[in-house]
Amino acid sequence: MDFLKNIQLVGKMIFGAGSFDRLDGILTEKRSDSCMVFLVDDFFQGRDLADRIPVRNQDRVLFVNVDVEPKTTVVDDLRDRILQLNGRAPDGVIGIGGGSVMDYAKAVAVMLTNPGPSSKYQGLNLAKNASVYHVGIPTLSGTGAEVSTTAVLTGPEKKLGIKGEFTPFHQIVLDPQLIDDVPRNQWFYTGMDSYIHNIESLTGHYANTLGNAMARQSLHLCREVFSNGDPTDLASNEKLMVASLLGGLSLGFSEVGACHAFSYGLSFVLGTRHGIANCIAFNQLGDYYPEGVAEFKQLVARLGIDIPAGVTKGLSEAQMDKMIDTTLALEHMWRHALGEGWKDRITRDKVREIYQRM
Ligand code: NAD
Ligand code: ZN
Fold first, then answer.
1. Which of 122, 141, 152 to mutate to test the pocket of ligand 1 (most atoms within 8 A of CB)?
2. Which fold has domain 190-357?
3. How much is the pTM?
4. To bridge 152 with a disulfide, which of 70, 94, 161, 203 should be the other Cys (CB 3.0-4.6 Å)?
């Protein structure tokens, strides 16, 4: 009964405006004779938030670039660099950024105690040693990465998470003031990840009362946020932060579906960022999620958001084949979306035809 999921949740969480200023006290309890490593989105280099990080004596602040989605090779480099700088594992790893930096922090924390390349651990419960203490501090809301059991990585062969009981954060700090300056398109793309998580969680064979309750509340909050349409409003940002959390939790007990299967193909072959790849894919999935897609289109039109079109035009046959392979390899997503007989219901030709519309 693989649909009965027994998942590791995050350890502690603090929520509310100003909670970032509690970080120093939170970390003090976890310090021994090593150091803390802060992995910070390089967007914040030279900005106020970087000056507010509670850095003590031997701590390290490493700015991480996320112009491309997290890669296994970068995780391995970060792990090696930390061990080289510090001589041993740190007391903790703190990720400050969007889904990309949070996934780096989760993956690095696991890889500091598990030998070999991180690509070896892309899959379910492949890491055998407990990770080092790690903390997630989102500066974008929507992915649910702050609460999920996976650290999504692109490796040499696939885009797949290091998923398992050692991946989730021991602590998350949810401060809505950290997301009050996000550019409008990014706010929508990442926020819509949560909306799509909920629609997919609710619409599929693994849907259940627990996951549904969280997805419905998250969907309700997403609607409030995107009908208000203001990324700089604190009350709205509080709601988006909670929507992201509940959407991510809901998926823990259910599963993503067709949109993520297509989105992963776009990201793997074209490098399209997750939030925007989801929007490009969801826009064409009215056959699978009629109500959700209709509402999505209304929001896009009303908020004046750009959704790229024609992204698969000019793909070589080999690229299109790779994209289709990537999509159809995500069996757990299809099993949720279409049921056990999914292979009869989604063919290579159908996947190609949908990609050609994007
Ligand atoms: P992101 O972390 O990739 O960041 C997108 C852009 O926003 C970057 O340029 C970043 O520098 C910038 N940014 C971050 N915070 C900002 C702020 N406060 N103000 C202005 N700009 C800011 O975006 P994302 O959508 O949060 O994350 C996408 C990633 O999350 C993908 O790699 C995806 O695979 C992953 N993901 C993981 C999970 C999970 O469960 N682990 C779930 C969904 C997505
Ligand atoms: Zn997602």
1. 152
2. Dehydroquinate synthase-like, alpha domain (1.20.1090)
3. 0.97
4. 161
Beta-strand runs (E) in the chain? 12-15, 36-41, 60-64, 92-97, 123-124, 134-138, 150-154, 159-163, 171-174
Whole-number Å distance, alpha carbon 60 to ligand 2 midpoint, is 30
- Element holding 167 (H helix, E strand): none
d(CA 148, CA 46): 30
274: CA distance to ligand 2 center in Å? Answer: 7
Q: Please state, as a whole number, how many other Cβ atoms lie within 10 Å of the Cβ of residue 4.
A: 8
- Residue 88 tokens read as 């041993």
Tokens 């279409």 sit at which residue?
A: 338
First to last CA, the chain: 36
Partners of residue 138 on adjacent β-strands: 97
Please give the C-alpha separations between residue 340 and each of 227, 260, 263, 332, in angstroms, as whole numbers: 37, 18, 21, 10
Residues 6 or more apart in contact with residue 197 via CB below 8 angstroms? 144, 215, 218, 247, 248, 250, 251, 256
Q: What is the pLDDT of residues 157-179, one digit of tens each?
A: 888 999 999 999 999 999 999 99
Residues with CB under 6 A from ligand 1: 41, 43, 66, 69-70, 97-101, 103, 139-140, 143-145, 148, 150-152, 179, 181-183, 186, 190, 193, 273-275
Q: Where are the domains of the chain?
A: 12-179, 190-357
CATH class of 12-179: alpha beta
CB 139 within 8 A of CB 47: no
Q: Which residues of 265-283 are buried (b: 16+ CB within 10 A; e: fewer)?
A: bbbbbbebbbbbbbbbbbb
d(CA 243, CA 278): 17
Question: 46-80 in b/e burial notation, b at 16+ Cβ within 10 A?
Answer: eeebbeebbeeeebbbbbbebeebbbbebbbebbe
230-284 pLDDT, tens digit per residue, is 888 899 999 999 999 999 999 999 999 999 999 999 999 999 999 999 999 999 9
What pairing do the DSSP bridges indicate for beta strands 150-154 and 159-163? antiparallel
